[in-house]
Amino acid sequence: FIFDDHHIIREFEPFPSHHVIDLYVDKQKQIWVSVFGKGVSLYRDYKSTTPSRYFDNYSVSKVFQDKEDNYWVATLNNGLIYFESTSSEFLPIESNSHINDSYGFEDKLFIISDRSLYTLNVETNEITNIHTLKSNRFINEIFEFKNQLWFTGKFLYKYANGKFELEIERLCSGHTKLNSDEIALACSNSGVAFYNVENKDYIPNFF
Hints:
Blueprint: E1 2-4, E2 7-10, E3 20-25, E4 31-35, E5 40-43, E6 52-54, E7 60-65, E8 71-75, E9 80-83, E10 90-93, E11 101-105, E12 108-113, E13 116-121, E14 126-132, E15 139-145, E16 148-153, E17 156-160, E18 163-168, E19 172-177, E20 182-187, E21 191-196, E22 202-203
Antiparallel strand pairs: 1-2, 3-4, 4-5, 5-6, 7-8, 8-9, 9-10, 11-12, 12-13, 13-14, 15-16, 16-17, 17-18, 19-20, 20-21, 21-22
């Protein structure tokens, strides 16, 4: 669905028996719908009725558009794929096959694959391991907040000044930015929590 002022202005055709992993709206207001085992569907705008489909047998976890308007497609079973905006070809990047998320930050592409955080040098395609968590921990989402990278997963982590650090020991499956200092965290088995990254106030079990 697409909402405007709490009203539904567009309902997309359903994806029967398929799990939608992620939605991404790029700078051109195109909508990328990532579907488990069925690739990604691209709607040119919210009025489009027939999407373009790519990677039919792939499980796409994330589509990201960088500052040069090129696209990075992370998959759960076929690694990372790069699409240059001036080209018509998707190019596979040699990487781990299972990629949860990717995000462009400080002229690097950050990639998470289960327990590990990597950076990709776009010019050389060289991948560097930044940090690997203990065997019972994982990270599944990257987001930018207050000029730092943050990660949800087994716990909430952040990457600042070249260091990957544990922020709070709470199981976090997702986030929403509330204001300049606060985020809301979707915490498995404990509802929604509020966290102020400046004064470290944590308010659990809001719902």
